[in-house]
Amino acid sequence: MALKIRLSRVGTKNEPHYRVVVAEERSRRDGDAVEQIGSYNPRAKGNPMIIKLDRVDYWVSKGAKPTSTMHAMIKRARRAVPAA
Fold first, then answer.
1. E strand or H helix at 50, and its extent?
2. Cβ neighbours of 3 (radius 10 Å)
3. What is the spatial distance between Cα 39 and Cα 10, in angstroms, rounded to a whole number?
């Protein structure tokens, strides 16, 4: 079972909202997830991302691989943590 850390869309038409999830690689984009570890609202002002970095580290240690988009978002979230 290969796991991916990726985005799952939950918003309506023209109002996107995403969940950051750990899901099996072959599952559908909006299908069942193993765990929800954050959220992303691209239309929000300020900080649109909420990511539990401790859970990201846990799942990466278990072999989950982030998609390229999630890799960039995780890097951005790590840079924002020391400033907070």
1. strand 49-51
2. 19
3. 10
Q: What is the mean pLDDT of residues 52-64?
A: 95
For domain 3-83, the CATH superfamily is: Ribosomal protein S16 (3.30.1320.10)
Q: What is the pLDDT of residues 29-55, one digit of tens each?
A: 778 889 999 999 999 988 899 999 999
Which three-class secondary structure state does DSSP give residue 31? coil
**Cβ contacts of 69 within 8 Å, gap of 6 or more:** 6, 7
The single residue listed with the structure tokens 């850390």 is 5
* Sequence letter at residue 79: R
The two tokens of residue 32 are 């069942």
Quote the pTM value. Answer: 0.87
